[in-house]
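Fold sample X.
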Amino acid sequence: MCIFILAVLPGQPVLLTGASILVGSARGLFTLLEATVVSDHWGPEGYASLNGVFSAPLTAAMAIAPSIGAALATFAGGYPALFLILAATGAASAVLALASGPAPRPAGDRPPAVPAD
């Protein structure tokens, strides 16, 4: 949704700055989520190596994104068109993720117990 906002906003600096702050906040949220998902899912043992494996694809994508984004913007006819393509790709990914359902759990694997208050 945040990427779609960047696609349809007119080029006024104040609006683009506000939208960029919103997009940055969403990215910051994912940073915090990444920090907890590894230990919540696999436990704290080996956290550093598991987190490294988990975040390596994202880190590689962030490293090459600026050059690929510029090339795609040239191909698409500008950054608004690029952000529309990115928003459509993100929406399609979300639909596919929801349609796939939850991942199957191995036999004997239980979710962590919730402590009683």
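Fold sample Y, listed below.
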Amino acid sequence: MSEISKDELFEIIKNSHIWHAQRIKEQLEKIILTRHNSDDFDFRFDTEDKYFFIYVNECNLFIFDERIEVRSDRDNTYSTDKTFVFAIRGVADISAAFDKFDSVIMEDELD
């Protein structure tokens, strides 16, 4: 088992876990900056300020503590009415969730 850093230990003490929503959002912002124009993705809070989300092309990426959920509200696509849940244990998990979000956004309608 790998050793835990002081920063990670502080996160665990402060939040009961390492990957809280704010930290996931910060890592996601870094990923977006390297891949896209950052103006294309607008982070918002839900109505009760409990979590962050991005909304693009009727698709959502929701950021919770220790997980990201990707959902599509578009009609007649492969991902219609599906929710993809990604447990976050590292930056690679955040990147994989964002890759899925990108792919859901770009889906063409089914014939």
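Sample Y note: Residues 29 and 38 are 8 Å apart (CA to CA).
Also: The first strand starts at residue 43 and ends at 45.
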